[in-house]
């Protein structure tokens, strides 16, 4: 475990140095996909992180990922703005913008939107304008007047060459034909950031916006919006509803918010001590989305992640966990990620888990065990530990996906077998400041 701990710290140091050098070269690190080093999703940032770990400057995986993001710009011509007032003067009384994500189930029949990460309903204050990245296929029939949806329409022509060429030439000119600057600004993530920022900037030029708030994940579109807003003396505020075991995505850089609200003591510490955040930009608050009383049973469950990487490694680890630890894991209930209920890949993965469980149900000696199991990275691990539940984590890349004692102080960690980690929380330690059922972001904005 000491080895994993130190490898994570060393990799964070390399990532910080990489971003710092780019800033010296005049690269806009707020919008660069290479600087969004989220360890869980396949992206230029993740592949750059892996290359730093392997001491490589280039790899086939990085080239393929960059090319995919490069070409994907041609699929973004069908982004539409829905429910926007034709006259921007109608927004003159707006004093803040909430920038977030939405799916159909977040909307009520009356057209209101409930942001579960921020704990706020759109009807709570009509001086707030909601700009939502809508992620479902069908748009709600009724939407509040203080809501704007950024929606990608389904298009028969997936790749629009004219649009691709237009953005390509525009970026080449903006970068003064510098290839290095160009590859840091021409990608799916970077162009999405431009689309979102363009709309928000257009709105606050007609209003007296004082602040922009978002459930913060350090994504390029968030940092781009924040960077431009800061130029206009608009306060930028983020709330980390969730983070990652290896939080390299949160390295402080251009476009980071003026104030970041966190609900974890350990997160506050590692943001300041390892990720270069100034102390005065971090505030510890009670959690908005993690309540004192949980809304579901958390013991004896198998949690499937949002992103499934290296499926065979995960399945092999699961089977060995049952065989080697002689637990009642094969009787645990499997729970899919809430946003992946329609994913064929996730349904197939869950069927394979059931096959393994059924294989050992008659063989295993039932042993008292109230643990739960997570595949890949998940912030849910911290929630369960904070509620007194023992946790097993099965992961394909421990350096990028597992929790370590240095970054997450207070954990007792065992490594019973390859790619499997067992976690307990030490006495007198807590990982999350749970909030009451009425807690929401508005409480912390004054």
Description:
Strands 1-6-5-2-7-8-9-10 form an eight-stranded mixed β-sheet, with helices on one face. The model has no long low-confidence stretch (mean pLDDT 91). The chain folds into three domains: 2-77 and 155-284, no CATH class; 79-152, no CATH class; 301-425. Helix content is 33%, strand content 16%. α2 packs antiparallel against α3, α6 (188-204) runs parallel beside α7 (220-231) and α9 (311-325) packs parallel to α10. With 446 residues, it is of the alpha/beta class. The chain is built from twelve helices and 16 strands.
Give a short synopsis of this structure.
This protein is of the alpha/beta class and 446 residues long. Helix content is 33%, strand content 16%.
Helix content: 25-40%
Tell me, what's the shape? globular
Strand order of the largest sheet: 1-6-5-2-7-8-9-10
Total helices: the number is: 12
Biggest beta-sheet profile = 8 strands, mixed
Number of strands: 16
Give the low-confidence spans: none
**Global mean pLDDT:** 91
| Straight-line distance between termini | 43 Å
Number of domains: 3
Strand fraction equals 15-25%
In N-to-C order, the SSE pattern is: HHHEEEEEEHHHEHEEHEEHEHEHEHEE
How many whole angstroms does the radius of gyration measure?
22 Å
Structural class: alpha/beta
